[in-house]
Design a protein that fits this description.
two-stranded antiparallel ribbon
């Protein structure tokens, strides 16, 4: 079966793919309670970027970095308990994650400042201050949805669509 995500990763310049370690794949499966998009799991179970892989506005992680981002670093470690798994980021440090609570695995961009989980989601718009509790509903309400499914996200990548949002853009669309 042709896997478009593997094809995408292999097309990136200056990327080295390595055979995935069974321990790392098992750790990812444990972190996600085995709720992973099939294309994602097929890709990372076979091979993964040795180092970060850059494409447009995005940085795709290898397995070890992915584990760290979801367990040790903010906002990923605070998003994972909400069902959002970080697999990449923007150059500004925002998480690119898929929603494990939805069987289509929509992809979101979660701001490292708005969605850090250390505090409520706070922002100012039109000279008014807003404060929302940090929970699943408010994160997906305030985070831009990049694609309705992981498969659609990969299709966008293959089409060259790799744009991210600034925090200002995120607040502007609320």
């Amino acid at each position: 079966m042709n896997n478009p995500f593997i094809s995408f990763l292999e097309s990136l310049e200056e990327i080295t793919l390595e055979i995935s370690s069974d321990d790392a794949v098992q750790k990812i499966r444990e972190l996600t309670a085995d709720r992973l998009p099939a294309m994602f799991l097929e890709t990372y179970a076979a091979s993964a970027p040795k180092d970060d892989a850059e494409f447009g506005d995005y940085v795709f992680y290898g397995l070890d970095r992915m584990i760290d981002e979801n367990t040790d670093y903010v906002p990923g470690a605070n998003l994972l308990p909400l069902g959002l798994f970080t697999f990449a980021s923007t150059f500004d440090g925002d998480c690119i994650c898929f929603d494990m609570t939805d069987p289509k695995f929509p992809v979101y961009q979660c701001s490292h400042t708005l969605h850090n989980g250390e505090d409520d989601i706070c922002y100012s718009k039109n000279e008014k201050f807003f404060e929302l509790p940090f929970n699943y509903e408010n994160v997906v309400k305030t985070a831009p949805r990049l694609a309705d499914s992981f498969d659609e996200f990969v299709s966008h990548l293959l089409d060259g669509n790799n744009e991210s949002y600034s925090v200002t853009d995120m607040i502007g669309r609320l």
